[in-house]
Amino acid sequence: MQGLTTSPENTIAENFGGDAVSKLGSVQFKLNDTPDLSGKVAVVTGGSEGIGFGVVYTLLKHNIAKAYILSVSQEVVDGAKEAIAKELGQDKADRTVWMQADLSDWPRVKEVAETVRRDSDRLDILVNNAGRGIMTHQLTEYGVDRHMAVNLFGHVILTSYLLPLMKKTAAQGSTVRISNQASNLHHGAPSDTKFASLDEINSDAGPNGQYGRSKLAVVLYTRWFDRNVTRSGHPNIVMNATHPGFVSSKQSRTDIFEAFPLGGFAMSYLVEPFKKDQFEGAVPTVFAATVADKGGQYLCAPAIPEPGSELSQSEELGDRLMGLTGSVIKEKMRGEHAGLFDDIALR
């Protein structure tokens, strides 16, 4: 995007761990810079481990009133709550609410969103963090590429059904922030990506291509939302996409072997000393979720706005993606969307 450039120093700061490396970045932000969040409410997908846990921990440390954690496994959540209670106190742990949700189970995502809307009178922060990593091609029970189903479609559904509550919160004078987890690997999306049909996104582009295509979609959705929601009447609802860098996580230590049984060794072991930990990886997400006052950005760690790939800057491609997103979700969910999705997300 015009005015944004990438420098070697920024590239290093964005991708690798260590305080000295982070300081090379042209825009600085540390987790300790997180403002006081008293009275605010957050929803975090994948908030029980990895980057998501780093985000939830930081929000609680800075006095968030309630954090809804969407996660597949209660066992992992229980472990996370125990760690929070031990380090931040039981009061902070009790501010978390676990909700079981697989982002590829779209009716369940809708159900969870509706539960949050009934349970809370506000929503200040939405962190769309959960995702499928670099893995092989697989279709969901709906017959949709699992990378796209989880990394984009599931979060679009969640955001859409939570949007009325976020609009209500913004109308009270608060800035509502949404952070979407993207990746620099969106540059690896197939160069002929058109988002023209379900058959196209269901085509096997290889592990890196599948992942890159879904993360390209995340950046395009973020910029589409900024044009069609934020700048179309809701300036206090701000959505940004983030790139955490190379983070030591289940995806990079374990899941990578599913796609690359031999090649995964380099990512899992040889690169491990240079990776960020879960808290370093959480930095750009926390910035986007608590400080950013401008939407439609692609924010790389620590908080550096980057242009992203040429494809990610195409408004035409973004419009085509969201048109396809709407048609796929409505077809697969049939009556489950109950009209709400049409009204607030893909009008």
UniProtKB/TrEMBL annotation:
Keywords recorded for this protein, A-Z: Oxidoreductase
GO molecular function, one term: oxidoreductase activity
Family annotation (InterPro entries): NAD(P)-bd_dom_sf, SDR_fam
Matching Pfam families: adh_short (PF00106)
Membrane-spanning parts: none
Keyword Nucleotide-binding listed: no
Superkingdom in the source lineage: Eukaryota
PANTHER family assigned to the protein according to its UniProt record, in alphabetical order: OXIDOREDUCTASE BLI-4, MITOCHONDRIAL-RELATED, RETINOL DEHYDROGENASE
Entry similarity comment: Belongs to the short-chain dehydrogenases/reductases (SDR) family.
Protein name: NAD(P)-binding protein
Source organism per UniProt: Parathielavia hyrcaniae
